[in-house]
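Quick illustration for those who missed Monday's session on complexes.
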Amino acid sequence: MDVGSNSRVQAVNETGLQHIPKEYMQPPDLRPNLADRCFSSAQVPLVDLLNFDSNNIDTIRNGVGRACREWGVFQIINHGVPTRLLDEMRDNGRNFFESPVEEKLKYACTFGSAASEGYGSRMLVKEDQVLDWRDYFDHHTQPISRTNPNRWPHNPPSYRETVQEYSEQMKLLAQRLLAVISESIGLQAFYIQEVIGEPYQNITISYYPPCPQPELALGLQAHSDMGAITLLIQDEVGGLQVLKDGLWITVQPLRDAIVVNLGDQTQIVSNGTYKSAEHRAVVNAQKARISVATFYDPSKQTRICPAPELITKDSPPCYREVIYGDYVSAWYTKGPRGKTNIHELAINN
Ligand SMILES: O=C(O)CCC(=O)C(=O)O
Ligand SMILES: [Fe+2]
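Prediction with fe (ii) ion bound:
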């Protein structure tokens, strides 16, 4: 079967094929070992934000600090975002991807242009990349000057309002978390927020159709997120995995929880004390899966470097300064390649 440059996985899958096209086949060393899924005893940390504003803050800060050092990812509960809103975003995604193809194609993103807004499947500009078993809808949501809700789905009529409400809530939550993260490493609460400046926020709904050979494919290949922090919700199907001490650990789906992923820029600012999480999505033969990722990133012109406050004689800078736009361009041209992009900025002390 020919997989055209602009085709969608959902359409490929609906042809009823028994074997996946070769373009989606991962090389043997990158294929997921699905039998591992239920085994590991290690669990991604869970941080309860209940009583965030009172005497619980020390416990929360310590829990967040440990999770950022050891994992680069944690789940939060009692975060204040109504479950209704989380459900509405997941429903929006499901409705859109289950709508007729002619409807979806009205919102097609521009092929070949990195991070273009709209409905797409192939994320990278690079031609020889193994394809992800995933379709997506990307919304540009912050700053407001960058948004054009006319390009977002018109159905249901509440779709665009829900995305806007969700975008605001996720921005505030990301800022609260960045304050705790900054303080937990010994920086002023506003430190990381000020380094990032006016946040660029994208919201990406990912749709992973069932896959006839899930052991050969990946929904999303291993990567770390490029920006500062990502807030992700998933449905009950599950498939997000995080690499920890050489093992892929499945992030347990919890209806009310939000997954917090540190991005590469936070790793740089923290001078490597905190890690961005290497993660991927696996697929399954039975059920389509939805996730919604909200990225909180700097603008393209922003310079990022290790916080001078964290540099001492015993702890020299571990990363070179980078202009965020250059970092993003490298990511899209070379591919995510696990955490190779950030490793290339490392200074060998
Ligand atoms: O779908 C998921 O669980 C992961 C999504 C993700 O990592 C991303 O969009 O960067
Ligand atoms: Fe990601």
